[in-house]
Amino acid sequence: xxxxxxxxxxxxxxxxxxxxxxxxxxxxxxxxxxxxxxxxxxxxxxxxxxxxxxxxxxxxxxxxxxxxxxxxxxxxxxxxxxxxxxxxxxxxxxxxxxxxxxxxxxxxxxxxxxxxxxxxxxxxxxxxxxxxxxxxxxxxxxxxxxxxxxxxxxxxxxxxxxxxxxxxxxxxxxxxxxxxxxxxxxxxxxxxxxxxxxxxxxxxxxxxxxxxxxxxxxxxxxxxxxxxxxxxxxxxxxxxxxxxxxxxxxxxxxxxxxxxxxxxxxxxxxxxxxxxxxxxxxxxxxxxxxxxxxxxxxxx
Length: 300
Fold this sequence. Notes:
By secondary structure, this protein is an alpha+beta fold.
């Protein structure tokens, strides 16, 4: 089975480019942003091998220099498969910057849709709309974990997880969760931190990571460890996990924004409050209390 890739650009604002040439210079006074160089992502091998198709819409800011920053997956399906390669590809895009009255301006809210299609023979797999949960836990590992969770066998879960952490580093989270359920909070957070801040492995986009982030963000905020919370924000882009549970991500983002403000980093704090407001749907803006809190913090 061969694959073909199609990249489609969806720009939030489209305008006719207008160039007003100043005397004795080729620099435009006014210019709309436009793509100059785009690179298609690599089709994930496991996804391709299993005949899974889909797409991913990423959102980002085009800077004054024409580079891309603040990339996050706005909507992807199936969830959990194409986010990583799409974000990494978008980070390498090059644009001609927007220029207004001779001054380069950044443009936020720009979107690009990556479509992953398969061509040729072979069976297509329909995985449905649900997120891919625990995609890197083997079936026997998942069964063993579920068995101990159901029984409330926390000592057994800890022993099982620590026995397999060298094979699958995600087990560090389950060891931490077991310690937390046994009331050993210091040991619990240490294990979960080892998973998130692993020295050799990337932070995976999975439900287990989402659960770990929920635990650490709340712990750091409640225990007033604001520098640790800021370090976590710098290490992991929590906006990826908005695809799993947007309201919970807004809650975490609100605590992170407040941590920046308490630490005297007002600009960074306001940026994150604004992200909560800007990235919420119109319906969520009225139903989600965390969006309302962010708007209040911004004086909106």
